[in-house]
Amino acid sequence: MRKNVLKSSCGITFIEVMLSLAIFSAGIVAVLKTFDISITRIHHLTNRLYATTLLDNRIFEVNRTLRAYNALPFDLNHSVALDVGGKELTFKQDMRLGEVEDFSEIFQLDLAFTWMEGEQARRLSRSAYIGYFPKEI
To answer: Which of 32, 51, 60, 106 could disulfide-link 124, Cβ–Cβ 3.0 to 4.6 Å?
Structure first.
């Protein structure tokens, strides 16, 4: 006599395995996309930090030159090449100086640095007022 043994399905089917792999793959792709976006933002913020430091230093230099030598700088537009994260990055300076109406000792300084991130041009600018007040003897 043969006994009919009911087989229970304890295993998983091929379709279940494929569906699980598809869901897992979608999760991995989402994590890697987020990682790529994070790295891109970190590079942008690093470059922006360098540009901010260059802006601050350049404003200080112009102010110091004006006070020490009674002269404004002539090199209004030049480039600065820096090694940022193992890559050379060129910051192009654009500077405009102008007198403020009714104030002969105060100048308006508009300074901007432009650089390339991939194929996209980035620009950071700042304006400041600098003054020269000669000491009276």
So the answer is: 51
